[in-house]
Amino acid sequence: MTKQHWMGVIVGILFTGAVHAQVGRLEWHKGITLPAMQDGKAHIGMAGPIAGVTGNCFLVAGGANFPHLPPWKGGAKEIQKDVFIYRKKEGRLSLIAQDSLPMAVAYAASLSLPDGLLVIGGETPDGKTAVCRLIKYDGSTKKITVSDFPNLPFPLANMGTVVHGNKLFIAGGEMPDAVSDQVLKLDLAHLGKGWVCVGKLPYAVSHLQLLSDSQNGLYLLGGRKAHPESPSTLYHELWCSADDGSTWSKRADIPFPAAAGTACLLPDQGIWLLSADRGNTFHQVEALIFDAKKETNPSQRQKLIDAKNKLQVNHPGFGRAVWRYDLKSDEWKRMGDLPSNGPVTTTAVVWGDMIILPSGEVKAGVRTPEILVATFSNK
């Protein structure tokens, strides 16, 4: 082997090591749990909670759960209004106050802004809403205050949202009777103009992730689209927009369908996908629901319903695998595991070097009261 060839091998090894060294890591801490409910019973957790940072505190609120019976036993879903406020202390979260929202809401988008936590749309006991509100925490009163913000042009829930400079973006989401393919923008410097449509997505999609990098790029990943008479489409695509959502280009596919998951873009120039519903059990349940609706024989219909209930009871969960997409190499790589089954239908909150996964759904109809906390390190 020539000297030049050996030098090439050595440089290649050093370059590979340098690239590897740039990839960050997550150190998961012992999780904390939501406090007991007002009746003294242990909290069961909620799906679709509001979550973010306001007044140098972490806030989690609202969400939906089945407080009395699980859905396969006829339990009704209820939308909550409790608010839990945490302070960061020595890399941990500590509960400092509790309060209530003026209106119960779940499956809204929540964005941490300099002036407070913005709650966008969502689902209320009366249905989907277009209302947007800014929540602030007052440390002197240990209460929240709520003020109006420009409403959406139409009711929307389970959408992707991100802060991108001084602009807010929304992608997709569930409308009352359809799934959206629109990209909406709100300019914080011109609130009077309200939310405006600035582009269309490659397809209508809800339960997706929308992220932003430091180079004016928007990233859309995963999600699903419900159909009226057949199981939902689950997406494994990753798309990027360099013009504020006007046009989209395809990137490397996620290695699996990824709906209702949690993801964040971290300083190592990586998109970290922390959880997702890959749809295996979800599709089987949907198919049985549609078959039961079409079945005219009562006994056969009940058999289909029983089979659906059995699938939900024995749901295996959404797994623990953590994946990372590298913005530079356009590649996905598995990065390890969560300390417990990954929660879906919640929001990954990045607060400095802290990553928070608050509550969420861990099996069909089953929530977790656990708040997972990790520290990100780029060394």
Automatic annotation (TrEMBL):
This is N-acetylneuraminate epimerase. It comes from Sphingobacterium paramultivorum.
